[in-house]
Structure to design on (450 residues):
């Protein structure tokens, strides 16, 4: 296990100014239905006026979820412009190298806070991203996957071996309360080895989640941004009102750069949010760098990973991308602010020394695989609460006509939380109503003021 010497950023919270309506919106507002929520917009807006403009900082899980929902749920009576800023491109940060093992459970297979809602919304966004990529495939503009396969999702389930005897009873009880849409099955060694023949189970037990997914994070984010583009380019159904999406490969150094041009700025840049001078020293985040090893089985080796075998989630995880391609992760370097994807030889060597023994304890054949590369990224880890480690969300201030909103701290569960939380935050932004966000996600603000 790793010593978790977390570097907690100090907090100096200053009270936010009471919310003000953006200057171009009339105080005479009415609500229009958006899904099961009410989103308020002006009923006196003229298409000759400037559009509603939103800036999204970050093109990872959080940022693209917000961008999609802004385009989808934005007021239908107004021009809408969404600008996405990211200095390293779509999925260029930690989101793009995430292991991609998607399920709604804790390490003790307990359903996570709002796990059902988050699971469903994640599946929804995955389907949207898949649809955008399949559209390109049908146009001959994207590499065609194997027949019956997805270009971004491997649907083989996830297996979690039991490695601690004292947790067996708790895990078994938790598994009884699993979601029908993402089942958990308790397997003994013989049944588990039918899925993965070379598996080693220290305690002869494993929990199997057959509906859990393995997502190629980079391809998913590219597909979701493509879906955003498609949505923005749809022919409007009412008058001359239209949607516009623009990507800026640029890092924003200060929120003041955007105050004049936008109605709202949504900060979704993970651990980099702490680098903004307006938020520096004010967020209860812990920075944690993780290293992932990319493995390949040599052509001269015959023991391929089973084609229909699940990925493995243990002290180290094995994210399977094919019979001869696996990602192995991840390390936990607490306090590191090294955001580079590049990994030094020394850093890679240390990571491999940590990861391989953990992986080989449940899948001994991994020792025959070759390392083809390593990549690194920094997670933004939120504080632990009674409901678990939840993202930091909410309104964090405003200038004369621009509100600033925060969505960070996805930690190691970005794929699970990004869809549902991003949708709720977007509806709060559009209606200028923070009360639409569950109090569990904004509780960090009041605690920091104490």
């Amino acid at each position: 296990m790793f010593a978790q010497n977390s570097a907690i950023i100090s907090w100096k919270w200053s009270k936010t100014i009471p919310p003000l309506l953006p200057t171009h919106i009339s105080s005479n507002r009415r609500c229009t239905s958006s899904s099961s929520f009410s989103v308020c917009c002006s009923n006196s807006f003229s298409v000759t006026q400037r559009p509603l403009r939103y800036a999204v900082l970050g093109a990872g899980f959080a940022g693209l979820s917000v961008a999609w929902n802004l385009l989808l749920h934005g007021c239908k009576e107004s021009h809408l412009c969404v600008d996405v800023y990211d200095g390293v491109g779509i999925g260029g940060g930690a989101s793009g190298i995430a292991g991609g093992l998607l399920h709604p459970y804790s390490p003790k297979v307990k359903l996570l806070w709002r796990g059902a809602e988050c699971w469903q919304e994640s599946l929804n966004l995955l389907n949207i991203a898949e649809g955008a990529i399949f559209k390109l495939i049908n146009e001959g503009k994207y590499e065609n996957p194997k027949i019956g396969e997805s270009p971004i999702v491997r649907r083989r389930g996830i297996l979690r071996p039991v490695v601690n005897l004292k947790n067996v009873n708790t895990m078994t009880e938790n598994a009884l309360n699993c979601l029908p849409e993402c089942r958990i099955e308790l397997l003994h060694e013989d049944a588990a080895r039918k899925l993965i023949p070379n598996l080693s189970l220290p305690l002869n037990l494993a929990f199997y989640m057959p509906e859990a997914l393995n997502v190629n994070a980079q391809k998913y984010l590219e597909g979701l941004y493509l879906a955003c583009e498609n949505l923005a380019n749809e022919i409007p159904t009412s008058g001359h009102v239209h949607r516009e999406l623009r990507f800026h490969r640029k890092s924003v150094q200060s929120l003041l750069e955007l105050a004049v041009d936008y109605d709202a700025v949504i900060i979704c840049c993970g651990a980099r949010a702490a680098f903004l001078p307006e938020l520096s020293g004010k967020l209860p985040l812990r920075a944690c760098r993780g290293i992932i090893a990319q493995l390949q089985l040599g052509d001269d080796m015959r023991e391929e990973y089973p084609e229909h075998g699940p990925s493995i989630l243990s002290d180290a995880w094995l994210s399977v991308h094919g019979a001869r391609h696996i990602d192995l992760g991840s390390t936990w370097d607490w306090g590191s602010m090294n955001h580079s994807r590049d990994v030094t030889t020394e850093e890679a060597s240390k990571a491999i020394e940590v990861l391989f023994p953990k992986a080989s304890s449940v899948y001994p054949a991994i020792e025959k695989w070759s390392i083809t590369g390593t990549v690194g990224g920094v997670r933004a880890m939120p504080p632990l609460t009674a409901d678990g480690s939840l993202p930091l969300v909410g309104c964090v201030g405003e200038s004369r006509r621009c509100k600033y909103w925060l969505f960070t701290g996805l930690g190691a569960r970005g794929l699970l939380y990004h869809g549902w939380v991003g949708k709720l935050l977007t509806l709060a932004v559009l209606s200028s109503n923070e009360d639409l966000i569950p109090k569990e996600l904004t509780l960090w603000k009041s605690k920091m003021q104490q």
User: Anything to note?
Assistant: The radius of gyration is 23 Å.
